[in-house]
Design a protein that fits this description.
This protein has 202 residues and is α/β, with parallel strands linked by helices. Helices cover 35% and strands 19% of the residues.
Length: 202
């Protein structure tokens, strides 16, 4: 439904096109406005935390999740709820970890950071984190198929999505809450609109 709400006239609002678009992974929809190709992303919406947890529970157990949250409190509470759901799901041995700016004081968090830096991966099935994953810290593990982002700032959003390095032929499931998607659609900032339209177009 989200895709259908964008009309052709909105995507090409100026009516001007670059006759010689640059090579992949970039293309131009409006002259002078390079848009990254997000065709590898499949957009999914969830209505509540319970809805998101159900998505996690019902996903293939080999798949991993990377979930970005704004606050430490939010991350810790979500970790508890997911762990509880795993426990109630019978013999579900999937593990959940949480990363925040406190990692320098926490041995377990430090181990996770070191694992990501050295191997581009993490052992847990679900990793919840704040913006502690700085630029330069990337994840290349092909099992990380699901990313949850609810950041309002365009730059932060792009950086979070970019934490997962995608190889040729790989796809990613991106999850955004319905309320945040509505905000994106209402956003009047030209650059942000172009980014969201590129993300939604396929």
């Amino acid at each position: 439904e989200a895709l259908e709400s964008y009309h052709e006239s909105e995507l090409y609002e100026d009516g001007w096109f670059d006759p010689d678009p640059p090579p992949e992974p970039y293309h131009y929809k409006v002259i002078g406005q390079p848009i990254q190709d997000y065709s590898y992303v499949t957009l999914n919406c969830y209505s509540s935390q319970e809805d998101l947890i159900n998505e996690i529970i019902n996903s293939p157990q080999r798949q991993k999740w990377l979930i970005f949250v704004a606050l430490k409190k939010e991350g810790k509470e979500l970790k508890k709820e997911i762990e509880k759901a795993f426990k109630n799901n019978g013999p579900d041995k999937r593990k959940v970890a949480f990363l925040s700016s406190d990692f320098r004081k926490d041995a377990e968090m430090q181990k996770i950071i070191e694992e990501i830096v050295k191997k581009g991966s993490f052992k847990e099935s679900v990793l919840i984190c704040t913006s502690v994953l700085d630029n330069g810290i990337t994840i290349s593990d092909s099992r990380v198929k699901n990313i949850v982002i609810n950041e309002s700032d365009e730059c932060e959003f792009k950086q979070m999505l970019g934490r997962r390095i995608v190889k040729a032929g790989e796809t990613i499931n991106l999850f955004i809450c319905e309320g945040k998607l509505s905000y994106f659609k209402r956003c009047r900032k030209r650059e942000y609109n172009d980014f969201i339209k590129a993300l939604l177009s396929d």
